[in-house]
Task: structure prediction
Amino acid sequence: MYRKVLLECRKIINQTVESNFTEKTDLLIKTLSIPEHNMTALYSVIAQANYMINSRRNKLSDEELRYMLRYHLLLGIDQLKRYGPLSCSMIGEETNVYKYHDYIGSLLETKFQVEYYNNGYWDGKPVKVAGDMVKLVRYGGLSDKIPYIYEESQNKNIIIKNTIDKNYILNKMSKAKKGDILVLYDNRLRNKQNKILDLCIESAKDLGYKEIWVKTLDLYTYLWKCKRVV
Result:
């Protein structure tokens, strides 16, 4: 059900322009069916954009309005998996790693990829591999069973202080290491600092991972893209 709702939200956002912003965002909120206190960021930007549009002070293009909605919808993914119709994480509770051609991830993620890009046609069978899943921050729409490097609050403090402890990253990653393949989810939706990701990759190399894949969330499809970096 939650996947169906996400796709419907994507459809609504793609149809949103300044002239129908109020109508489409009302429909978006109705489709989500989530209380305002659980999605404060999304509700807030919608209210602000409505005010600017109605007062004829809006300076955002239609595409910028759509991007704003996509961005803040994804910021609330953690709330979406806990409340309302999206009561499931983006990859469920599965942490087993599978390879399917040039894609790697959970079996459910792979299924979504095939459904979206290949119209449900499977050209082969996904193969389970000895891999580990790790996410950069604790929250961000992923299963609670996946080990994380930083708490969200810790991550913000690191950004502010501009200091990163590689030994801390090594310690966190070593506790999660079981296989030879690392699937690293960059689930930060804001305050991104490439140095953190770079040090995570360096740490994974030091721990002897033979393959390292970085996954990021596509704001248009709500699917996890993957890229092999080692």
